[in-house]
Design a protein that fits this description.
Layout (H helix, E strand, L loop, with lengths): L1 E3 L7 H12 L4 E3 L6 E5 L3 H11 L9 E3 L15 H10 L4 E6 L14 E5 L4 H10 L3 E5 L13 H8 L5 E4 L9 E4 L6 E4 L10
Helix pairs in contact: 1-4
Length: about 210
Amino acid sequence: MRLKIYPDNPQEKYLQKVVDSLKNGEVVILPTDTIYCFAADLTKARALEEMAKLKGVSIKEADFSFLFSDLSHLSDYTLQFDTSVYKVLKRGIPGPFTFVLKANKKIPKIFGKRKDTVGIRVPDNSIVKQVIERLGHPLATTSIKSKDEILEYITDPELIDEEFGERVAVVVDGGMGGNQGSTVVDLSSGEIEVIREGLGDINTLT
């Protein structure tokens, strides 16, 4: 099912449809401020396993990021960090950054051995942020890669629906997506270490 949702004024009934699908343990596809992604309720093991299959990896190999609507639930999944790290987060959130932080023991056990770190994002996209707010906790997500030799990601929601529509509950059409992922920044040591350069400008964090 493909739902056209307008970022400037997301339709309530469509947002609720997405949330209901997530609560039912189904995988959905959502836009972010960078690229389109697979998304699942972090607490639904079946959905996490299905998302790993869509990605073509085992659940123990999956390296999902967690999407938050803001920083309020961050301490539920990460270890305490110092003021300097918090200042970096505030400068880059919301925005096109994935921050790697030390994980606590609340990370779902389905991932196998306990994860020492976790990648977190707060995307600057009203659709996904409102979905997370209605769900009440973060989403587990992973990018949708393209088979195209030039484009790294699939940017057209209609093409995404053609390829994956029958394997997910909902494809949210929030307009054309980007073809550049987030900038990944490791803050687990307390210092800024760029793991991958993407859309986010690292200079804005310092």
